[in-house]
Specification:
Blueprint (H helix, E strand, L loop, with lengths): L7 E5 L4 H12 L3 E6 L6 H9 L4 E5 L5 H15 L4 E4 L14 H28 L3 E6 L3 H4 L5 H21 L4 E8 L5 H4 L3 H9 L9 H12 L10 E4 L7
Helix pairs in contact: 1-2, 1-9, 3-4, 4-6
The chain binds NADP nicotinamide-adenine-dinucleotide phosphate.
The site of NADP nicotinamide-adenine-dinucleotide phosphate has 26 residues, from helix 1 and helix 7.
């Protein structure tokens, strides 16, 4: 018996990293999972892991920043799995650079995936969730959305916007028993952070009281809590998972 038995979860950016760990964690607790990423074939390994846990996995290719593609993806999930109980807006990208050198393309790309993508998926699942009078949405924000970061004005703005989106949607949807919360990870070891220079990583590590980087599983555990009835009285909240790096 898992705490998500009978539930259907949709996870974006599920091909690797944090998204993959979330999909596997929710599946281990009994949820069937719709996996979304830019290309269906990238989702093969995650789908295999979900199936290995004895749950159904379907693969949906969509660019989260494309409205028609997102609607088609949600329609496919509802058609094949019957419903959506849990949406995890995880897909995210970085295009770092200092403000004065940041191109409009890098600004737009990050805002499109990190913020517009979450808006589009939330809008697409909101109707069916309101109709079924239940649902949970978890947005993967970042501590950078809380404190800002030099060289990441696009990313920080997208994640701060995502936190504001979380709170606004939580207020709109609470009356229909749809909860919306965010997780704000600190420094998590994935492909997104592997590209950082060693001296930057060292500086980060020095700023983490728990003296280790986070793992994708650390984030997946927080998502599981927010996706389950264990957090039944929580909405509009930001759960920070960062080894003590930021305390607020
Ligand atoms: P990751 O390893 O780069 O994985 C992100 C996934 O999202 C990739 O599979 C990526 O596909 C997919 N994706 C990118 N653009 C997409 C789009 N337009 N449509 C659909 N899928 C798309 O990143 P991660 O570290 O696991 O990060 C996951 C989330 O956590 C992100 O929202 C990130 O901002 C957030 N986060 C991460 C950290 C950290 O330290 N790692 C800290 C705070 C917050 P591609 O292969 O095409 O890139």
């Amino acid at each position: 018996m898992g705490i998500l038995d009978g539930k259907v979860a949709l996870v974006t950016g599920a091909a690797r990293g944090i998204g993959r760990a979330i999909a596997e964690r929710l599946a281990a607790e009994g949820a069937d999972i719709a996996l979304c990423d830019l290309k269906e074939e990238w989702l093969a390994d995650t789908a295999e892991a979900v199936a290995g846990a004895g749950r159904r996995a379907i693969r949906v290719a969509a660019d989260v920043g494309n409205a028609a593609g997102v609607q088609a993806a949600v329609d496919k999930v509802v058609q094949e799995l019957g419903r959506v109980d849990i949406l995890v807006n995880n897909a995210g990208i970085t295009r770092d650079g200092f403000l004065v050198r940041m191109s409009e393309e890098d600004w737009d790309a990050v805002l499109s995936v990190n913020l517009k993508g979450a808006f589009l998926f939330t809008r697409a699942v909101a109707r069916p969730m309101m109709k079924q009078r239940s649902g949970v949405i978890v947005n993967i924000a970042s501590i950078i959305g809380l404190i800002g970061n030099a060289g990441q004005c696009n990313y920080a703005a997208s994640k701060a916007g995502l936190i504001a989106l979380t709170k606004s949607c939580a207020k709109e949807l609470a009356g229909r028993n749809v909860r919306v919360n965010a997780v704000a990870p600190g420094f998590i070891q994935t492909k997104m952070t592997d590209v950082l220079a060693e001296d930057v990583k060292k500086k980060m590590l020095d700023a983490i009281p728990m003296n280790r980087f986070g793992t994708s599983e650390d984030i997946a555990n927080a998502v599981l809590f927010l996706a389950s009835e264990q957090s039944a009285y929580m909405t509009g909240q930001v759960l920070s998972v960062n080894g003590g790096m930021v305390m607020m």
